[in-house]
């Protein structure tokens, strides 16, 4: 497999004899059977990422809760569970998925800025480990439900530490201007109040997503240390959330997660907490999947070339939503001339693009296959039925075997509940 794309794909995806493979299976064999567009995951890459993450934080007592929002396919969740991870959920739907996948409730944390009373009650009835609380009214609700069920409920307060990070505006979640977390004054007021059932044990401080620098985490931990001292409350638990970045382009730098983990553990040890919780999503799944799509048409214009493919923003919205870059490659490697083209979908929006000015073979034609990389996190889980398109199938490859882990939707699924 090629050296430069290994930054993204490790040893799990790449070209063999000029055709693109996932582990030991040629992509074109998969799409011959399951058609396009189609998500394909590498099971062994997933396991590799889980192990790497776990090892990086092994010097401290930790609970690693995979952030289900990144990818919530039940079969993917089962792999997380089988490899020892807990789960971080943000809705009753996600909680139900994790329970179906077999996670122990004692390893589930419930986060989210707007949990409904029904969702909180469902979590309490299922004895989940804890709630990450984001406002005063929420903790009052938890207290009342605790009284109703005669149960103590473990809570960590999500703090808004007003820390800036170098990432996309939409995924910064710890600035004052964002809706997330409690300001320190309110957090201190809540702590002083002493609840009977809502047991506050620590702090949650998710900062944002796709973070490649350690300094915001260190700054956040320092702020927590100072805050704890000021209010004379010393947390037993600290949850630093997720946000650990991955490379999207071959030129991107990779995060050295071992070094990162080592440093974070050292800082957290100074807080003398009993448990560190981590909520990685993207780091674990982000680069472990691709979307395979077929070229429908090639439009050659003086100003710009367009390759129109059968995957659109409903299948993978990140480029349209955040302007994100995804690595795009031809399934069949060619040594011939290249041209630049925008890779666009069939949807009636000018924002429906998967890549801009992508180098493609000059003779690219109808029927050729295109590989879109970095498709494991916030891709299928953000997919929709816009333009009444069926969401694609998902296939999991394990060595020489492949299995369908989600069927392509049927047309009838599109109008379910309407007629
Ligand atoms: C509270 C919380 N935890 C964890 C995550 C996972 O982030 P990432 O996928 O960047 O690791 C998110 C993402 O938005 C989040 O909001």
Structural notes for this entry:
- The structure is a single chain.
- This protein is of the alpha/beta class and 419 residues long.
- It folds into two domains: 157 residues, Lyase, Ornithine Decarboxylase, Chain A, domain 1 (Beta Barrel), CATH 2.40.37.10; 240 residues, TIM Barrel, CATH 3.20.20.10.
- The chain has 13 helices and 20 strands.
- Strands 4, 13, 14, 15, 16, 17, 18, 19 and 20 form a nine-stranded mixed sheet that branches.
- Strand 2 and strand 3 form a beta hairpin.
- Helix 3 runs parallel beside helix 10, helix 4 packs across helix 5 and helix 6 crosses helix 7.
- The radius of gyration is 23 Å and the shape is globular.
- The model has no long low-confidence stretch (mean pLDDT 95).
- The structure holds pyridoxal-5'-phosphate.
- The site of pyridoxal-5'-phosphate has 17 residues, from helix 11.
Q: How is this structure best summarized?
A:
The longest helix has 17 residues, at 215-231.
**What count of domains describes the coordinates?**
2
Estimated helix fraction: 25-40%
Tally of helical segments: 13
* Strand-pairing-aware structural class: alpha/beta
- Secondary-structure arrangement, i.e. CATH architecture of the largest domain: Alpha-Beta Barrel
CATH superfamily of the largest domain: Alanine racemase
Low-confidence stretches: none
CATH topology of the largest domain: TIM Barrel
Task: Give the tags.
13 helices, 8-stranded parallel β-barrel, 419 residues, binds pyridoxal-5'-phosphate, alpha/beta, 20 strands, 29% helix, TIM Barrel, globular
């Amino acid at each position: 497999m090629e050296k430069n794309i290994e930054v993204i794909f490790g040893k799990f995806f790449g070209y063999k004899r000029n055709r693109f493979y996932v582990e030991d299976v040629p992509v074109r064999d998969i799409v011959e059977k399951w058609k396009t567009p189609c998500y394909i995951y590498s099971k062994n890459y997933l396991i590799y990422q889980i192990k790497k993450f776990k090892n990086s934080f092994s010097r401290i007592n930790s609970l690693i809760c995979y952030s289900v929002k990144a990818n919530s396919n039940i079969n993917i969740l089962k792999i997380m569970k089988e490899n020892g991870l807990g789960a971080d959920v943000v809705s009753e739907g996600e909680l139900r998925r994790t329970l179906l996948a077999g996670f122990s409730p004692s390893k589930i944390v419930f986060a989210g800025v707007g949990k409904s009373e029904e969702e909180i009650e469902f979590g309490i009835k299922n004895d989940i480990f804890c709630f990450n609380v984001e406002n005063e009214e929420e903790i009052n609700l938890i207290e009342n439900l605790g009284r109703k069920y005669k149960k103590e409920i473990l809570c960590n307060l999500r703090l808004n530490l007003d820390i800036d990070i170098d990432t996309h505006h939409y995924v910064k979640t710890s600035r004052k201007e964002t809706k997330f977390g409690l300001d320190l004054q309110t957090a201190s007021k809540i702590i002083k109040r002493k609840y009977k059932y809502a047991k506050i044990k620590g702090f949650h401080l998710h900062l944002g997503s796709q973070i490649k620098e350690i300094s915001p985490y260190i700054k956040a931990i320092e702020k927590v240390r100072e805050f704890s001292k000021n209010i004379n409350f010393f947390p037993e638990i600290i949850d630093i959330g997720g946000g650990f970045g991955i490379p999207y382009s071959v030129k991107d730098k990779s995060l050295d997660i071992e070094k990162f983990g080592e440093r974070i553990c050292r800082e957290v040890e100074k807080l003398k907490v009993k448990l560190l919780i981590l909520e990685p999503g993207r780091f674990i799944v982000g680069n472990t999947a691709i979307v395979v799509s077929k070229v429908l048409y090639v439009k050659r214009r003086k100003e710009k070339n367009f390759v129109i493919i059968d995957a659109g923003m409903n299948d993978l919205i990140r480029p349209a939503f955040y302007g994100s870059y995804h690595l795009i490659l031809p399934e069949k490697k060619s040594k011939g001339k290249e041209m630049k083209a925008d890779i666009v979908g069939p949807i009636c929006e000018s924002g429906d693009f998967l890549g801009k000015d992508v180098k493609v073979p000059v003779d690219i034609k109808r029927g050729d296959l295109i590989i879109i990389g970095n498709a494991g996190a916030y891709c299928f889980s953000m997919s929709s039925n816009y333009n009444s398109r069926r969401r694609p199938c998902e296939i999991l490859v394990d060595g020489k075997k492949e299995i369908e882990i989600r069927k392509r939707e049927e047309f009838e699924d599109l109008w379910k509940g309407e007629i």
